[in-house]
Design brief:
Elements (H helix, E strand, L loop, with lengths): L3 E5 L4 E5 L3 E2 L4 H12 L6 E4 L5 E2 L1 H17 L3 E4 L3 H9 L8 E2 L2 H19 L7
Parallel strand pairs: 2-4, 3-5, 4-6, 6-7
Antiparallel strand pairs: 1-2
């Protein structure tokens, strides 16, 4: 079982894995957690990778799949505090430019807020608050 901290904010949930290495054997648990979050009342999420130093390709692929699914459903999905080893892995498999990655949680919140405004303008709805 993965050690993860969840912190629900006003408009999103911060998911902070407390594992130095996100390994292939954690993929099923991680996928279930992410699916659970996208089904929540407030599905927008920030993955805070401050503790994650390494990540297997299967986890990176899971992030890419989840990001694409969130994009299709109008759900914000942002990574922040990505450590060097993880960023190098994402670059090596050409995912770093595909994912929404910010240096800090504050900047992740800015992205989520901007995406909410975009959705509001495109859909004529107000989904800023969950």
């Amino acid at each position: 079982m993965m050690d993860v901290k969840l912190n629900t904010k006003e408009a999103f949930t911060v998911i902070t894995p407390r594992e130095p290495h996100l390994a292939v054997n954690m993929a099923d648990d991680f996928a279930k957690l992410l699916h659970q979050m996208t089904s929540a009342e407030c599905p927008h999420m920030v993955l805070d990778f401050q503790h994650v130093e390494q990540m297997d390709d299967e986890i990176a692929g899971l992030l890419a799949t989840q990001y694409a699914q969130c994009l299709e459903r109008g759900i914000s999905f942002v990574l922040c505090n990505v450590q060097t080893g993880v960023m190098e892995r994402l670059k090596s498999i050409e995912l770093s430019d595909l994912l929404n990655i910010t240096p800090t949680e504050s900047e992740a919140w800015d992205i989520i807020h901007m995406e909410a405004i975009e959705r509001e303008l495109l859909n004529g709805e107000n989904d800023d608050a969950c």
